[in-house]
């Protein structure tokens, strides 16, 4: 008889997050044909997201829909998740390595008395063992880890594992009941989003980042235009954030966000090791810097030595021609 693999999926603004489809694929890669794949979706007003998720999951989508779960709150989410996990007795549970996943996964691990491997970027199955690859020392090295027992908890770094493909037939959708605890110690009243972009930086396929070289808040304008044209997001170095040119929610690096887009365009960023920690795994890196010795060129696939205020508008113009 097979084991049960569970994916804890996430929504944002009512829509299924792409990292959840990557987590579904992670479960596919780690499991065998006879194993069951079940996705759990927690939140409120989840009908559309559940229907979409069901297209990608082999066996079942279980929905826990309640107004108290509309916004992430650790206590309420664990109270909803724990009985479902007790019922399913999973072999492995997959989360996105997101703000929610990073908070909820260790609590689920403690509840199940499970081991956890976090921030996984690749999965390989050989014979009877599954190995999980994760970066170490801010991406300077990688380690392959294996579990020796179950239950197991995994978190998946966004944008590294190809999202799952639709299955031949949609999974069955069922509802689990959630009885809210009258004694929650914290209640989320409101979430104030600081992000200025419409596309989530950590899930964007294209990121256009500015450093101290942009010189002012207004200096980000050409970068925003390019990002919008390429349907990407704007990021920044800490240098730019510290200088007050942009909000810290845009910071990429060791103490900021980790991004792995298809294309990362670094404009006026020197390439300090702490910045590289947040973007060096991007598929294609394009660096624009007027200093030919800037360290960013060591990790760049394409380097443009020049003034970003000349180069970025030219790039935008050329991309506009190609895309129109
Ligand atoms: P600078 O190093 O000043 O580089 C600006 C670059 O712009 C230069 O290379 C210059 O040649 C170029 N330039 C200037 N004008 C133009 C122009 N007109 N056209 C083209 N190029 C131009 N940094 C991060 O980014 N993320 C982090 O998470 C982070 N965490 C840190 C944690 C710790 C504990 C510490 C100590 C530091 C951390 N830093 C982080 C800071 C990091 O060390 C660097 O100071 C920072 O990344 C530098 O930002 P920058 O490249 O924008 O600025």
TrEMBL record:
Keyword ATP-binding: no
Pfam family name, one: ETF
Superkingdom of the organism of origin: Bacteria
Electron transfer flavoprotein alpha/beta-subunit N-terminal domain boundaries: 4-199
Lineage: Bacteria, Bacillati, Bacillota, Bacilli, Bacillales
SMART domains in alphabetical order: ETF
Manganese found in the keyword field: no
Listed InterPro entries: DHS-like_NAD/FAD-binding_dom, ETF_a/b_N, ETF_a/FixB, ETF_alpha_N, ETF_asu_C, ETF_asu_C_CS, Rossmann-like_a/b/a_fold
Name of the encoding gene: etfA
Family, as annotated: Belongs to the ETF alpha-subunit/FixB family.
Protein name: Electron transfer flavoprotein subunit alpha
Keywords of this entry: Electron transport, FAD, Flavoprotein, Transport
